[in-house]
Design goal:
The protein has eight helices and nine strands. The protein is α/β, with parallel strands linked by helices. α5 packs parallel to α6. 38% of the residues are buried. The structure holds S-adenosylmethionine.
Length: 231
């Protein structure tokens, strides 16, 4: 079925998502499909498959698509408040016939908390989020205790939280904030962050920063297996 749904005044190209047949396709195209669902979303019903991986702030979706293509048995879900990125991801996934990828448009602090059951994620990845350097924008930063607490709760015990940034002050903030969450531990306790990517795939921003020779910072955190249930 082809869909022409206006989004911010623009006509979308026809999209025939081969995924999530249980959902209203018009709402899938708009990215707010999850507002029609009982929450947390019943992922096993709408995107059946293997381990559930989340990418927050997937931008143009290149990294998410690469992972979904390489791992047809896994499920790859993106959350971003950028609706155009969602549209591009749907288009690219539809063209490739991918049935293991889906995204939702929404603010990460709210959407991640609502969409996923506690303990349901195999991994959560946040690549090169905007560092919001001005003090008056600090509450928008993803690398802060509140977001780490939400993400940690959503991971299964042993599940991974991957972070990446090109911005040194933001890496320092991440290094200060994540240890405030008792559910999390580092997989590289000897160093605050890694200088080499732990992933076999790159992101669009990563490619840009590499071309410019910027030092990059990666964190691989894990939800502790032995942690007491957090309040
Ligand atoms: C600098 S881009 C990086 C995109 C991609 N991860 C990459 O590395 O190419 C940051 C992305 O995070 C998204 N983002 C930032 N804060 C967010 C929030 N609170 N909720 C959802 N998405 C957010 C932006 O919309 C944008 O797409």
């Amino acid at each position: 079925m082809g869909l022409h749904v206006p989004l911010r005044g623009k006509a979308l190209k026809p999209v025939a998502p081969p995924f999530a047949p249980a959902l209203d396709p018009a709402r899938v195209v708009l990215g707010d499909w999850w507002k029609d669902e009982d929450l947390p979303v019943a992922w096993d019903r709408i995107l059946p498959g293997g381990p559930l991986h989340l990418e927050v702030g997937f931008g143009g979706g290149e990294f998410l698509l690469r992972r979904a293509l390489a791992d047809p048995g896994g499920r790859y879900v993106g959350v971003d408040h950028f609706a155009e990125g969602h549209r591009r991801l749907l288009q690219a996934a539809g063209e490739r016939g991918l049935s293991n990828v889906l995204s939702a448009v929404g603010d990460a602090f709210v959407a991640v908390n609502l969409l996923f059951a506690d303990g349901s994620l195999e991994s959560c990845t946040v690549n090169f989020p905007d560092p919001w350097p001005k003090a008056r924008h600090a509450r928008r930063r993803l690398f802060q205790e509140e977001f780490f607490r939400i993400a940690a709760r959503k991971l299964r015990p042993g599940g991974r939280l991957y972070l990446a940034t090109d911005d040194r002050p933001y890496a320092l903030q991440a290094a200060e904030e994540w240890p405030k969450v008792p559910l999390l531990e580092s997989t590289h306790p000897e160093v605050p962050w890694l200088e080499a990517s732990p992933h076999p795939f790159t992101t669009r921003y990563e490619e840009r920063w590499r071309t410019q020779g910027r030092p990059l910072h990666y964190f691989v955190l894990a939800r502790r297996r032995d942690a007491p249930r957090e309040v």
